[in-house]
Structures are given as structure tokens and as C-alpha cells.
Amino acid sequence: MFTKKIILILLIFLSYQTQVLSKSTTLNELDAKNLSNYFSGIVAYENKENNIALKFFNSSKKLLNKHDPYLKRYVNSLVLEGKVSQAINIVKKNIKNENSNFFDAHLLLILDNLKKNDFNKAYDYFNRIKNLSEIDRFNGAILESLHQYLYVFKEKKILKNKKSFGKLSLISETFQRCYLGDQKSDVYFSNLINDVEVDYSRYIFFYLSYLIDNNQIVEAKKLVNDIEYINATLLLSQAKNWLENENIEKFKEIFSCKNHNDLISEFLFLISNLYSSQDDFNNSNFYLNLSYFLNPKFVFNLSLVVENQYLNGEYKKAKKILKNFKRDDKFYYWYRVKKEAKIIEHQVNKKESLKYITSEFIKIDHPNNKMIFDVANFYKNSKQYGKAIEYYSMLIDSLDDEDIKTDLLYRRGGSYERMGEYKKADKDLLESLKIDPDDAYVLNYLAYSWLERNYKIDEAIIMLEDAYASKSNDPYIIDSIGWAYYLVEDYVKAEKFLKRAVELMPDDPIVNDHYGDILWKLNRKIQARYFWANVLKMEDVEKEMLEIINKKLTEGLKNS
Prior knowledge:
Elements: H1 2-17, H2 32-46, H3 50-58, H4 68-80, H5 84-94, H6 103-115, H7 119-129, H8 137-155, H9 167-180, H10 185-193, H11 202-213, H12 217-225, H13 234-244, H14 249-254, H15 260-277, H16 281-294, H17 302-311, H18 315-322, H19 330-347, H20 350-361, H21 369-381, H22 385-398, H23 402-418, H24 422-435, H25 440-452, H26 457-470, H27 475-487, H28 491-504, H29 509-521, H30 525-536, H31 543-555
Helix pairs in contact: 2-3, 3-4, 4-5, 5-6, 6-7, 7-8, 8-9, 9-10, 10-11, 11-12, 12-13, 13-19, 15-16, 16-17, 17-18, 19-20, 20-21, 21-22, 22-23, 23-24, 24-25, 25-26, 25-27, 26-27, 27-28, 28-29, 29-30, 30-31
């Protein structure tokens, strides 16, 4: 009885506050259990706990034809769990009902018919979807791009007088020309990968695939010759490795621009990536799973699923997906090892994380420069600076690429600095700046190191001003220049920078400590103690710093 009363209250509340229930729904049609499950599903869905939401939605299917928003939430939850075929079947069964008239439902039916090579039916659903009231600008761009692809597939020619969406349209037309076997495909791919405004290195892979499809193996090998593993993306590293090992068939297995499903899969991946870049992981994963539905052979794309889940703290899910990256593909497997190590770091500690990755590393007979670099970074992150230096030195001595060397010198110099070997640190960091004098991060690191040592303060300030001119929104650089002005007793100027730094990094202990110090100097002592006290609440604060903060809270700043 009590449960029914609660549900009735919820029902009345929600019907007034949100349009959770359709106008056609009556209390008699809905029993307590279904309502309870449905409301629990909504809560889980809104909290991004999709697997839990789906369980509740599965338990309240009686609402399927009685409640308008139910179908949309149910379908979305299915797709987010990778159950795309099931979501399509649910939509098909309900397509004649009013509650099926939403963007995602028709999109699923378009993709379903594309997978079945039925372009006419795909077009039919496109015509239905384009008149929906919920089509916003972004969905409109997706829909129009799909229309251009559908036209190419059906009519075997590129649509004229089409809408342009900037770089998105350039990518789409490149693939469409490739699909049609257009002789200009080569030029389009070349223009894309050589674009100076945007990093289109991903599309080098598709250009390689195009060259291999056209039996231009020598040209493909030339294209990867200049790619250095250390700074190459995961996809390009694996592609280069396949070519070096004459594993040409791998390219043909996973992607062909002659396959319309592969093309739409890549388009959906691009949409997913756009959402991910905005930290919209739900929409990103939605389109990722649609992409994978069309081309499950392209395992690399699952790395974005992993990254989304990792950033969202869904480590169990991420580990499950990582199992798709097999040992046979050297770089894919190494990516899996690295990500598993990072998960261990979050779930256990850095010590166990380092133990795991080094145990896998020693199993490799001839580790690549990329692998050596990654292990060096893990040692540095675990504060085992001596070991990190050993591996960085190995790479510095063997590589000629100056762009890579400047980064390696920066990392090794930072490791020396952490060990208190300041002469060696300064030598590496200054050598890095010789190669790239405008590197804001190296300028900042070296200058801040000097500030901490009370060494060459004036020169440090000049370097920090140069770094700030280049990266005026970087919170670490802002903190450094604020602290520099603090040390030369320009407190007004220091406060301006340190206030901004703490706004940008409210959870950083050093920034809060610095801001507390400047507030104390400005005789705003209550505020100073507030920011010092904040440090005590933060995670992973070093013991030495905690002791200093506690002393400040008790005694304030001496000589002030």
C-alpha cells in the first residue's frame, strides 16, 4: 500500500513537473512495479549509469506503447550498451506508433538498410527523418552529410549544389570520390593530410588504404618512412608496423572506401570524436557503437570507447573493451597494456601500475622506441627518476629528429631537476631551448626551477613573460609568473596572476598555497588561511607540504 502511494505521488508530481508521462497514459494502464522500474531507470539514465538503466527499462516493457519518452530512452540505452541490432528490432516493431517518430529511431533504420545494401529504403527513411521538429543544427549537419553519401551510393555520382560544412564536407567528398574511383581521389587525400590548419594525420591511414587498394604498395611504404613511432598516433604506428612486416592484407580486412558501410562507419566515428572533444561521452559512445555496428573489423575505433570510459571512471567497462586489442597486433596490444597500467594506477597505486607495465615490457624481444619512451614516462610518473633518465638517454643517443629530441631533453631535464641534479637539469633544458627557443612549457619549467632555487630571478621572469605571451591561458604558466612577481615583491601584480591561476585550477595544492601566500602579504589573512586550509582537503599532497601548510595556519608567514 505504501509503495503504491509513493508511486501515485511521483506520478502526479512528474506529470506536472516534466512531461514524463504521455497524455494518453492513465493510472489504470500502469502497474506499480512497471512504474517503479521505470522511474529507477530514469534516475540511472540521467546519472549516466546506462547499464543499470537498461536493466530497469527491460523490466518495464509494458510501457513501450503507452508512454512516449520510454521508447527513446530504451533505444538509446540499448545502443549505449552496444546492442545496436536489438535497438533496431525494437524500433522496427514500433515504427508505426507515434512514439517512434524521433531522430535516433529513423537514423537506426537508415543504417540498418545501408548494412543490407538497400539504398532505396535507406533513402525512404531519410525522407521521413528530415521533417522532424527535433532536428537541431548539429543533427541537421549529420543528416545532410548522410544525404550526400546516400546520393553517391544510389546514383553513383556526387551530389551537386550541396550544403557545405567546412572541413567535414572536405573529408566526406574525399571518401565519396574514393568510393566512385575518381582519379582526383589522390589529390583530395593529399590536400587533406597536408592541411596546415588541422591535424588530419588519421587520414594518412585511409590514404594508405587507398594506395594499397590500387596496388601502389611502394608509394604506401614511402608515405610511412618518415613517420617516427614516438610521436605517431596509435593507428599510424600500427599501420606502419603492418607495412614494415608486409602485412598488407590487414588494410584490406578492416577498411575499404569501396565499401559503403566502411565509409558511413568512419563518418559516424568522426561525429563521435566531435562529441568526445566536448566531453559529451554519452553522445560520443552512441555514435561510436553505431560506427562499430557498421564496421566491426575496425578495432582501432574502440580505443575512443576506452578513452571515454576511462575519463568517465568506468574502468571495468574499459578493461572489457581492451580485450579486443590482441597480441598479434604489436601496437594495439601495447596500447592495451598502457591503458591497463593506468587503470591499475587509479584502482590500486602507481607502484603496482609500474610493476605491471614493466613486467609486460621485459617480455618484448626488440622493444620499439615508442615502447621505451612510454616506459620512461611511467618511471618518471612513479618518481623513479634514475630509471626514467636511463631510458630517455637511450633514446636521445639513438635519435636524430630534433623535434623529438627537444621533448626528450625536456623530460630528462625534468627528471634530473627532481633528483636535485641542477647542473645536468639546466644543461638539458637549455639544450632543448636551443632547438626550440619558443617552447613555452620548457621556458616555464626551467624558469620555475630557477625561482625555487632563488637563482637568476630576473632571467626567469623574462622567460616566463615569453611563455605567457605564447600560452596566456595555461594555468601552470600563469601560476609561475605570479609566483615570480611575488618573489620580487610586486604583490599587486602577483595577486592578479595567482587569482586567475586558482580560478583555473581550484584543486591544485601548489596554486592554492601560492595564492594564500600573496593574500597574506596583502594583509587579507582570513582569506589566506582559507586557501591554505583548502590544501589540507586535497588528495595526493606530499607530506612535506602538509607540514608547511599546518605551520602557516598556526603561525602565518614569518617576517610579514
